[in-house]
Specification:
- The complex is a heterodimer.
- By secondary structure, chain A is of the alpha/beta class.
- Chain A has two domains: 220 residues, Up-down Bundle (Growth Hormone, Chain: A), CATH 1.20.1250; 244 residues, 3-Layer(aba) Sandwich (Rossmann fold), CATH 3.40.50.150.
- Helices cover 51% and strands 16% of the residues of chain A.
- The longest helix of chain A is centred in the middle third of the chain and has 55 residues.
- At the A-B interface, helix 2, helix 5 and helix 6 of A face helix 5 and helix 8 of B.
Chain lengths: 523, 176
């Protein structure tokens, strides 16, 4: 019974190790390739392919006279292949995505680069872990003289339960608490210990090999892993692993003034939030300034300006709005940010309001759509600035059903302002979002290009006209009056048909088309 | 997407453009051109484009003024398109240099190389072409490195898939 339980525990731990490798793999690649659906697909695909080969390899190895010894070797091989992952990730990724690659250029390379990197990095470990199952079945069957189905079922159940524990443990405990390096090293250490214990039972001759493998794993403790490079002129203030992404804050000094950027999964030239030492407008190229425009176009000039920011990040939208609202309007902000680490870093480095501050409420760890639906109505403005993995608009925050939720959350005359990553107003992503918002708001919406950036702002309004184009008032700050009459920067969109719905939402396809369109225009 | 902004070129460009305006002979053209620059400097880009839309304004000054307006406005792709449309009809060293500059700002390596090559063969543009050789070379090198990376990735994927396929086939056959 004890031997029986030990074998199943070994299988369960190997199953957990497989999931640690698979889930942490995406996080390991994220600094170079992001953690988009395409990267997940590539990693999962490679792991599944490796497991298939590993199963057959295990089946072949199980025919040997002593499958227990081979099981020990396989576990040691998996341990070695896992232990080195944090140390070889950077040079491997650099083979396919060189330093200095810009975000728009890199986006087209992510699919091939992440797939190739996954093959080189994760295939060996997953292949070895795949061989564990068949070998364990063979050991169990020989030892207990059971039928194959009985042994296979028990091993599969143990492996699956181990995988389950590995899945939850990796995301919620190991990566946030230990970081990636120690997460992989812990998995490798456990696999190495299992391998050595197995070889110990298999016979003394294998102990030397086990000791050598243990040395290989232990030697990785002395190596410092390479990390994604911080660009010249930037100082790294802090880097953390959150349950969702790699997050870091960097600082630069421009004309004696400190600027800070919060970057996620960074390998490219983009940022998630920005902080300027002096509050107020950030200046050319920063779309955050354009979140304030509705307050200046609105009729109200005093009282609380109730705003809900979906995708608060580290609070850049609030920081800009706090000091640039017109008249006696005072910001009353609800902010929704799914990543608590981003909020924590915002409070530490970017003057994001502390918990309990009057007129500021942050819902961290919460989803924007659910929060908005539950927040009640009456907002003057909803700001949508939610991105995942640098460039991806979350699908459920781009549909007509979501925009109806936004509309219902606004007071009559209230505004939606959405930041859209797009090359111009005709961009496929901007076009689809604008038509979807128009259908939900049952009226025209406006797309406004942000100067010196690749961002387009989308403005919609509940049951009231939007004074843009010929109707724009004089005297707006920041040169807005002139800009909002400048036809090449504007596009009015009206549509009764929504191209993006909860049922059918090809937003990821549109984002790919957006990049392909930009590439075609270069040729 | 929070792509980092490209930066303005600055006052040197305006000075160069004003020099181009002074070389125009017809006073109406000069007036329209100068008005366009004034509107651009004031941030009224719609008026800047309107000023040079009249028939009396030559194609080259119009293109220069429009490019300047778009560039100052921060619509760099529109500015580059303006330059390229004008250069397709008539060579102009100033427009060509701006095309190089805009291509670099937009990270458009093929366009930057193409325009730099044309600039190198233009008269009175030796200094400009030398000045831009470095940034363009750097951009082209980065672009080629990225393309090499993609090619390398495709090879690795192909070879990896082939090896896995062979391994699957060989292992699935079992022992005879």
């Amino acid at each position: 019974m004890r031997r029986d339980g030990a074998l199943l525990a070994l299988v369960a731990l190997a199953g957990a190790g497989t999931m640690v490798v698979e889930l942490a793999a995406v996080r390991l690649l994220a600094p170079w390739f992001g953690a988009s659906a395409a990267v997940w697909t590539n990693v999962i695909g490679v792991v599944l392919l490796a497991l298939a080969v590993g199963y057959l390899l295990g089946a072949r190895l199980s025919a040997a006279a002593d499958p227990l010894r081979r099981l020990g070797f396989v576990l040691l091989a998996a341990a070695c292949a896992t232990a080195w992952l944090p140390f070889v990730a950077a040079p491997t990724a650099a083979l396919f995505l060189p330093d200095g690659t810009t975000l728009d250029r890199a986006a087209t390379q992510v699919r091939w680069g992440s797939l190739a990197t996954s093959i080189l990095l994760f295939l060996p470990a997953a292949l070895a872990l795949g061989a564990v199952g068949p070998l364990a079945v063979e050991v169990d069957q020989r030892r207990r003289a059971r039928n194959a189905g009985d042994a296979g079922g028990r091993v599969l159940a143990a492996s699956t339960i181990g995988s389950l524990v590995g899945t939850f443990g990796t995301t919620h405990v190991l990566v946030p608490e230990l970081g990636l390096r120690w997460c992989f090293l812990l998995a490798a250490g456990v696999l190495a210990a299992l391998g050595i214990a197995t070889l110990w039972r298999a016979g003394a001759a294998a102990r030397g090999v086990g000791g050598a493998a243990l040395l290989v794993v232990a030697s990785t403790l002395l190596v410092r892993p390479a990390e994604a490079r911080v660009a010249d002129g930037l100082t790294l203030l802090e880097a953390r692993q959150s349950p969702y992404q790699s997050v870091r804050v960097v600082e630069r000094v421009v004309d004696g003034e400190r600027w800070r950027e919060l970057q996620v999964n960074e390998g490219f030239d983009s940022f998630q939030s920005v902080w300027r030492e002096t509050p107020g407008f950030l200046g050319p190229g920063y779309y955050y300034d354009w979140f304030v425009l509705p307050a200046w176009l609105d009729e109200r000039r005093d009282g609380a300006w109730r705003t809900c920011v979906v995708g608060l990040g580290a609070g850049t939208a609030w920081r800009v709005m706090e000091s640039t609202l017109p008249g006696a309007l005072a910001l009353d902000g609800l902010g929704v940010e799914i990543d608590p680490e981003v909020v924590a870093l915002g409070r530490e480095y970017m003057d994001l309001a502390a918990a309990g501050a009057p007129g500021r409420r942050v819902l961290s760890g919460a989803d924007g759509r659910a929060c908005l639906a539950a927040a009640g109505g009456g907002f003057d403005q909803v700001v949508l600035d939610a991105y995942a993995n640098q460039v991806e608009i979350p699908a459920h925050l781009s549909t007509v059903e979501f925009f109806r939720v936004v509309r219902d959350a606004l007071r009559p005359g209230g505004w939606l302002t959405a930041n859209v990553g797009a090359f111009d107003g005709e961009d496929p992503v901007a076009d689809a979002l604008a038509r979807t918002a128009s259908a939900a708001f049952e009226g025209p919406v406006w797309l406004v290009r942000v100067p010196f950036s690749r961002n387009v702002m989308l403005y919609a309004r509940r049951d009231a006209p939007i004074p843009m184009g010929d109707a724009v008032p004089d005297g707006l700050p920041h040169g807005w009056s002139d800009w909002l009459r400048f036809a090449p920067a504007l596009r009015r969109v009206e549509s009764a048909v929504a191209p993006l719905t909860d049922d059918r939402n090809p937003i990821d396809v549109l984002q790919r088309r957006s990049l392909e369109r930009a590439e075609e225009r270069r040729r | 997407m929070r792509a980092r902004a490209s930066r303005r070129v600055g006052a040197a460009m305006l000075v160069a453009l004003a020099g181009g305006a002074a070389s125009s002979h017809a006073s109406t053209r000069q007036d329209a051109f100068a008005r366009s620059l004034e509107h651009t400097a004031a941030g009224d880009y719609a008026a800047a484009l309107e000023s040079v839309s009249a028939e009396g304004v030559g194609a080259l000054p119009r293109a220069r003024a429009r490019l300047w307006a778009f560039h100052h406005a921060g619509l760099l792709d529109e500015a580059l398109a303006e330059a390229e449309a004008a250069l397709a009809l008539e060579e102009d060293a100033w427009l060509r240099e701006r095309a190089v500059e805009l291509s670099v700002a937009l990270h458009d390596a093929p366009a930057a190389r193409r325009h730099l090559t044309a600039l190198e063969s233009a008269e009175d543009a030796e200094r400009a072409s030398v000045a831009w050789a470095g940034p363009v070379g750097e951009l082209v090198e980065r672009d080629e490195a990225a393309r090499r990376g993609e090619r390398r990735a495709r090879w690795v994927v192909g070879i990896g898939a082939l090896l896995c396929g062979v391994a699957l086939a060989a292992l699935a056959r079992g022992r005879r």
